[in-house]
Design goal:
Layout (H helix, E strand, L loop, with lengths): L1 H4 L2 H10 L1 H21 L7 H18 L5 E2 L3 E3 L10 H11 L7 E2 L4 E2 L7 H8 L3 E5 L2 H13 L3 E5 L5 E2 L3 E2 H7 L3 E5 L7 H7 L4 E7 L15 H11 L3 E6 L17 H6 L4 E5 L10 E5 L1 H8 L11 H13 L10 H7 L2 H15 L5 E11 L8 E8 L6 H10 L4 E2 L1 E3 L2 E5 L8 H11 L2
Parallel strand pairs: 1-16, 2-14, 6-9, 6-10, 10-11, 11-12
Antiparallel strand pairs: 3-4, 5-13, 7-8, 12-13, 14-15, 15-18, 17-18
The structure holds pyridoxal-5'-phosphate.
């Protein structure tokens, strides 16, 4: 036992999880070895073999919990890697509110109960231009709440070119069915007109739904219904319109060289009654789902008992508020890591890539290269962001092996694989962590 605990990496695990967990793992490994000797009449394993067994057991224990990783995938808002990293002020707010008590559901002036759902109204008004806003657990929950409140047992008209499936099994027709609403599809896959919506209106129509086609494009012989026209039709017919924007940009992405991504404010200006978007995509905040829109519609959402099952936690509200406040100052959004990453000049990334290649490449296996990154999070799916990074090719290991070893231990780097090479994109990796990238690279190529 003492010999195992004297190994520096095993001692590292003991510092991370506590020595009880590590001792239990040692006991497991020794017990398995004894069983092999007794039952299978095998030779007593050597210390090194036992140590290898212990290491893989501890590595498994570690990755079952949440561990940090550097994102070298080149996808800035990667759902599998936790989407948006938080701004320093958001982290600070989570700490301040999280470490003690707050007025989460309490009116400090009157000394009576208050609604947590009213907390971010003012900030959402000033950042989106909407009359009011409401925050729930995530974007999917926000869509569900809108459908449940307005469309249960009634009809929702959706254009056939927007019946989306996004990641994680969120398929619009299924979500509609789950909420007890009837989907009324209109138009053709490539062409949809306002008159298609108009003809489908009945006394049972509850909502006109528009959805951001966040992961595909329909190109060629196409026609689409503008949100403005759909919202106007809804007002004429007395039917609320809702737009699932998905990523929910609050700033214009063209200032970062990306194609224009419809902002929440534009959707509100177009007259859409309720706009739904995520907190952890282009907004750059914590996981949350936001509905911004008309005061009467938001009030109806607030009155739905289902809200109780979708409610957000105090730390989320604190982080979201702090993130939204960044947008109220000129250039304040550049303090949000996602925008800081987008704003980094590609020349700076090239310099870092060259320095890393020079530092780690002992055998001519690592090259600095210009590559392409993507925003992710359903934003600008086809528009690359100029980036730079490292292309690793070695005759000694396959690209998946190199990538796997970069992920195996602290510091962990998630790379991508293309054309039989392991590629580490630097755009989503903070410059201060380049030393860790070097450590992971050298380890993987050892
Ligand atoms: C991402 C997305 C959602 C779901 O939002 P989550 O916050 O991931 O639950 C819904 N609709 C669209 C169009 C999206 O892009």
């Amino acid at each position: 036992m003492t010999r195992f605990l004297g190994e520096p990496d095993v001692a590292g695990y003991a510092a991370l999880f506590g020595s009880t967990v590590v001792k239990a793992a040692v006991d497991d490994v020794l017990r398995d070895a004894r069983a092999c000797v007794v039952h299978d009449r095998r030779a007593v394993p050597a210390y090194d073999a036992l140590l290898t067994g212990l290491r893989s057991r501890l590595a498994q224990v570690e990755t079952e919990s949440l561990v940090p990783a550097l994102n070298g995938s080149g996808i800035l808002l990667h759902t599998n890697l936790g989407r948006a990293p938080l701004a320093p002020e958001a982290l600070e707010a989570m700490r301040t509110i999280g470490e003690g008590y707050s007025n989460l559901e309490f009116d400090l002036q009157a000394g009576v109960r208050h609604s947590r759902y009213a907390r971010l109204g003012a900030l959402l008004r000033s950042t989106t231009g909407a009359e009011d806003g409401l925050v729930v657990n995530n974007g999917a929950a926000a869509v569900l709440l809108v459908l449940d409140t307005f469309a249960k047992g009634r009809e929702v008209i959706v254009s056939r070119n927007q019946l989306i499936e996004i990641g994680g099994g969120f398929r619009l027709p299924d979500v509609l069915a789950r909420s007890g609403a009837t989907l009324v599809e209109v138009g053709a896959t490539n062409k949809v007109y306002v008159r298609d919506f108009e003809r489908a209106l009945t006394v049972d129509t509850a909502l006109l739904l528009r959805s951001h086609t966040s992961n595909y494009r329909i190109e060629g012989f196409t026609a689409d219904v503008a949100a403005r026209d759909l919202a106007a039709l809804g007002r004429r017919a007395g039917v609320p319109s809702v737009e699932d924007l998905g990523s929910g940009a609050l700033v214009d992405l063209t200032s970062f060289g990306l194609p224009h991504e419809r902002t929440v404010r534009e959707a509100i200006t177009d007259g859409v009654d309720m706009v739904v978007f995520s907190g952890d995509k282009l907004l750059g905040g914590p996981q949350a789902g936001i509905v911004a829109g008309g005061a009467a519609s938001i009030a109806r959402l607030r009155a739905n008992p289902l809200l109780r099952a979708l409610r957000v936690d105090k730390a989320t509200l604190a982080a979201l508020a702090a993130t939204l406040r960044c947008y109220l100052e000129p250039q304040g959004h550049l303090r949000i890591p996602f925008y800081a990453m987008l704003a980094t000049p590609v020349e700076r990334l090239r310099e870092r890539a060259r320095a890393l290649a020079a530092r780690c490449d002992a055998r001519g296996e690592i090259a600095a290269a210009d590559i392409e990154a993507y925003a992710g999070g359903g934003a600008a799916p086809l528009a690359p962001v100029a980036s730079a990074g490292l292309v690793v090719r070695t005759a000694r290991k396959s690209a998946p092996e190199v990538a796997s070893e970069m992920r195996a231990r602290e510091p962990r780097v998630v790379a991508r694989i293309a054309h039989d090479a392991t590629i580490v994109d630097l755009r989503a990796i903070p410059e201060a962590r380049d030393g860790d990238v070097a450590t992971a690279l050298v380890r993987a190529l050892a």
